[in-house]
Amino acid sequence: MKNKLLFLLALIILASCGTKKHSISTTKAARAAEVMANLKSKDLYRFITDWTGVKYQLGGMDKKGIDCSGFAFILERDIYGLTLPRRSKDQAEMIQKRDKNKLKEGDLIFFAFGGNEVDHVGVYLNNDFFVHASTTRGVVVDDLKLPIYQQAIVKTGTLK
Length: 160
Fold this sequence. Notes:
- 41% of the residues lie in helices and 23% in strands.
- It is α+β, with helices and mostly antiparallel strands.
- Helix 1 (2-16) runs antiparallel to helix 2.
- It starts with a helix and ends with a strand.
């Protein structure tokens, strides 16, 4: 519980500094902190806090750098004991579709930013937030309701 409070406080403090632009981030940071506090799996909570901020690296599979499919691969293996293929495109073939409005903690979300083919994956948390390895920000908890994500979602579901 103490770690949760410290994590929440750190997120709020970091997000609250600066200009008016950051007031939007404060709301997002507070919502992300709430999402993290409401995770059913405490192992998932620890996993995410341990990986948050690790930089993006195409083909990366460790804390020196990781890509989105590598992050999903390791998370699903370490938290749920499930085996995924290495590439996001192949991972998308392994799931049973679930409506994006009925996602559950640990479900996978696939995106196509460069056309119709899957090129990104994230893991659903709760309350429309997910965790992923962003190409620009590294491992982060993000708001799935942002238009950039809503427009790019191509498949959601759980492992078969």
